[in-house]
Amino acid sequence: MTIENCDRLDWLYHLKEITTFENKTALTLKQNHHGILLCTNSQADLSTSTTHHQTGNKQIVLVDALFEKANQIEFTRSTSGYFVQFLVLKEEESGIYQPAPFPLSIVDVDSWLAVEKVKEMKRRLMDSSYQGLLQANALFQEWLLLLCDNQTKNQSVNEVIESSKVYIDTHYQRELTREVLAQRAGLHVDYYSRKFKQLYKMSPIAYVNNVRMKQAKKLLLESKAGVNMIARKVGFNDEFYFSRKFKQQEGFSPTVYVNTIKRSTKIASLNHLVTGHLLALNLEPYAAIMNSSFPAVNRLSQTLSLGEDGPDLEKLLATKPELILRSGSTTAPKSRKEDLYAQIAPTITLDFEENWRVHLERIAALIGRERESERFLQRYMEKATSVRQRIKERIGSGTVLVVGVGEDNQCVYGTRNIGTVIYGDLQLQAPAGIKQIAHYQEVSLADIAAYEPDYILLTVYRKNNRIPNSETIRKQIATFKQDRMWQSLEAVQRQRVYPIFAEKHLYTSYNALSHDLMLTKMAQLIQ
């Protein structure tokens, strides 16, 4: 790879603006402009209108241009540094230049050197004279060459091709030709295509179409947009060409595909959360993660096991599911294993941060069970109201603390998961400080005593996917009973401690089935 391959005479790089920003959480990149962020304080990940950047320890980040609108940049925390905006122009016909993609990737160089060069560029740019602007742009050209030179010294051809694949994964909706991709990689078109095929067993354009088809299938299932809009969203300008390619690959049209999935029962669940939602919709998953920590497995008599702690890829491939459902982060970069899921079947991820009711309704819409979802939520609301009234009659405004018992420690649960039912749907009073805890917080017995709870629910503490066995729990409880701090609790002295260990992780899983069973359990405890 050489700089000469990409620094061609029909390409121009024009510095437009350098701004200094301090403690910012958002910036705007102008339409048609590329941006280089030079962060001078602790790093924060950033998201743009189209992509998520996990910056790690990088101090220099390239933000690609949007050609139809400005690009909004948001940081995960306040960040300071320099923001360089510039144009890349390519000669389309004699004397006519158009905005174009930046043909290289940017990597880190010495941070002190980078900052000094940007400061000098900014000083020259602020000089409104013609000479000052020329000097600023000359320094900018040198700076780009420094960044590109650093890349050529440290990246092998395979690394460049891998970077190109990542670019396709995140920019598939753009016009991506062999020429554009090769120019971005800094390689000759034929050489780039040959190396890409060697590495990924398909041509770059075949890979682009594969990515687009995977994204199209997700949008067809998850959105109510028409085929024409979905085709454009994933990078196809011609709806009919998209439909023809879709039918060639899937065997039927996009519309028939959606109807087929909605009628399908070949659904693979990769998390207990998903399994609980499917069971609440009266659908037993075709294949699922199955282990004793989630006693709902007793309801899965016909379900094929995909493993105990995580999905076994060979088993998942062998089951040939038509749809894969999982929970996880929808903003973090995908792992290699997650990429493989999508190659087996369309994969939908329920975001950890979403409400369980949203999860249930999304799954119901995907598999054509909207009526079942509506009926479940209606019954659930009525049940919660009834149980809440009965509990209030018994305990009044008494505070309730949910304590999880682990292998060698304990926690208190906050407002999510089991807390969603206790403090949300049943509206029971939480001790002061609990509402500031989202999921859980490890505590000492002294911390528990400080909450001064009127009532205590004892359940399991599932740490690092490990569920304590019955003997471990028994020993931990015995330790509690011997502790003076535990003995001093009013809830203990008044025998207001209620264990719900037999069900293990069932009640702490964030899904419709678990919450419904928790309502039933609470009704039983007050009888």
UniProtKB/TrEMBL annotation:
Domain Fe/B12 periplasmic-binding: 266-527
InterPro entries given in the database record: ABC_transptr_periplasmic_BD, Bact_iron-sidero_bind, Homeodomain-like_sf, HTH_AraC, HTH_AraC-typ_CS
Subcellular compartments: Cell membrane
Keyword annotations: DNA-binding, Signal, Transcription, Transcription regulation, Transport
PROSITE patterns: FE_B12_PBP, HTH_ARAC_FAMILY_1, HTH_ARAC_FAMILY_2
Transport is among the record's keywords: yes
Domain annotation HTH araC/xylS-type: ranges: 162-260
Keyword check for Cell membrane: no
Pfam families from the UniProt entry: HTH_18 (PF12833), Peripla_BP_2 (PF01497)
Annotated Gene3D superfamilies: Homeodomain-like (1.10.10.60), Nitrogenase molybdenum iron protein domain (3.40.50.1980)
Membrane topology: Lipid-anchor
Family: Belongs to the bacterial solute-binding protein 8 family.
Protein name per the record: ABC-type Fe3+-hydroxamate transport system substrate-binding protein
Species per Swiss-Prot/TrEMBL record: Shouchella xiaoxiensis
